Amino acid sequence: MEVKARPMFGRRADASPAQVPSHLRRLMPHLSPRRNDSLVTMMQEIRVDPALVYLEEKNRSRPEGRPMTLFHLFLRSLSVGMELRPGVNRFVKGRRLWQRDGVYLTFSAKRELVDGSPLLTVKRRFCSDDETVFDMVDAIYDKLLASRAGKETASDREVNLLLRLPGFLVPVVMGVARIADELGLLPRAMIESDPLFTSAFCANLGSIELPAGFHHLWEYGTASVFAVLGRIETRPDGSRVLPVGWTYDERIEDGMYCYYTLEGIRSRIEEPELLERSASQLAEGS
Asked: What pTM, to 2 d.p., does this model score?
């Protein structure tokens, strides 16, 4: 269902109107109303030998059963990148560009590492000025352990309630939710709990030894970026690289801005000590 209405009163619970001087950038949501008409894809290779050495060293002092992983470093670098380069932390709703009020990352994980095991979806707010990379790792473990223990989230309750409805009512309710979202009427509590209202969605296929690829963006929700991490590959010269398939909505910022944002994410993982600094410290060059 395509909705052409603009958000009421120019407000949303999760964002404010983006201040964009470019007339073309403001016109883009009208030229390409759908997110999946606006996809740009890019395959990136991140050199991981320094990061793997760093992880081995840091994990000697980590609690048993809570190792820091390459995926943790990726989440840290991505979240810091969105703090340093806020143009990629935007989304389009109601034919208008919005600046999200925080950095939220959603990622999926298997409940158990066996074929057919259900996926867990975890959404979390990230702020490098509020926590170190080590605090972030522990907080993610806490959240994953709660999910794997079967603790029901607000989003789980909403989905379970929706699926109890007669089949013909489900698209009606979803249609109402889409219209409310376009109008900026969804309450913050619903947005906070929904994993598709996020800065970026990340899938770590490398954890199950699958290659990287590209993923579409959902029209529902506000995710403008999708990252798919593949298994580590070895180059002919013996160095190891992490392939990442990026999909992003070109309406949020121009290609050069997004490219340099992705390059920053890569460079920090290739020099992992930088991830111990906050975005503010990196911006100041300290």
From this structure: 0.89
